[in-house]
Design the sequence.
């Protein structure tokens, strides 16, 4: 039995929308070109440099620390060992430090997921994690005021709440496909296939074509024709409807920018490079196939 009923309940919480509608653009603006944080720091928060969502990496820190604290708390309660208690206090503190970084990176990613159900679930995920963090802060305060039993109980509550939040995070990844590579389902053809007469591709035009079922973006710049996956790896946006910026293309949905040369991410929120294809002209037709890279 799962707790999918929780997801269904969150969908009905209309009071979340005003919060999301104010908070999401505020964070996105701070991460923008003219924002207080800026795109360079935003790329770090998203994990563009890592090739993997940074938030997902950091979640292991608080969850691991707080799980270890629960074990040490149980041993302290059973044996009365102060060493176990000190160990629990230390890993709770470490988990709180990790939670701060996890929250910052998570909010950065959440600001770029658009509206609807994923936004509500993401906001609930954040609110639950904030509640869990508050439980652990209060737990430390109780421990230091010699109310260790109450502190242990509050820490256990925090672990339960963080577990529910983790479930929602998993739902966003595995059910809603947030943070995964949206080009992974498309395989470039192994051999050259014709996709468009050369005469129909205009200079600086973003042109979508089909290569054996794979959406491909063609761009002519001078004497060169570029071909990359047309589906944005972030959330599946149509790059053919985006903006050409010299030898890069910017997604119209959330602003990810990719190099036409090698598909690398120039600017997030995407962390996955776009597959590139090899191009040739034969008998007046543009042909593409899987890149040798």
Sequence:
């Amino acid at each position: 039995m799962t707790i999918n009923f929780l997801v269904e309940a969150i969908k009905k919480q209309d009071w979340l929308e005003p919060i999301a509608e104010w908070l999401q653009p505020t964070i996105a603006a701070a991460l923008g070109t003219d924002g207080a944080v800026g795109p360079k720091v935003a790329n770090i928060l998203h994990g563009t440099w890592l090739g993997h969502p940074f938030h997902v990496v950091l979640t292991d820190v608080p969850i691991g620390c707080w799980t270890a604290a629960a074990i040490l708390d149980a041993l302290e309660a059973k044996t009365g060992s102060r060493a176990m208690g000190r160990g629990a206090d230390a890993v709770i503190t470490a988990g709180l430090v990790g939670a701060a970084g996890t929250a910052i990176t998570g909010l950065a990613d959440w600001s770029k997921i658009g509206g609807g159900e994923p936004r509500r679930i993401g906001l609930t995920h954040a609110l639950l994690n904030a509640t869990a963090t508050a439980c652990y802060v209060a737990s430390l305060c109780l421990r230091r005021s010699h109310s260790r039993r109450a502190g242990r109980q509050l820490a256990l509550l925090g672990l339960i709440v963080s577990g529910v939040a983790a479930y929602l995070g998993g739902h966003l990844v595995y059910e809603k496909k947030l943070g995964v590579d949206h080009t992974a389902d498309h395989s470039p053809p192994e051999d050259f296939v014709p996709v468009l007469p050369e005469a129909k591709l205009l200079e600086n035009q973003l042109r979508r074509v089909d290569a054996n079922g794979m959406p491909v973006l063609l761009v002519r710049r001078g004497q060169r024709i570029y071909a990359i996956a047309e589906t944005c790896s972030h959330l599946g946006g149509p790059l053919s409807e985006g903006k050409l910026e010299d030898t890069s293309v910017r997604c119209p949905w959330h602003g990810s920018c990719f190099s036409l040369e090698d598909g690398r991410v120039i600017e997030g929120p995407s962390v996955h490079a776009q597959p590139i294809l090899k191009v040739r002209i034969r008998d007046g037709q543009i042909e593409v196939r899987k890149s040798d890279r």
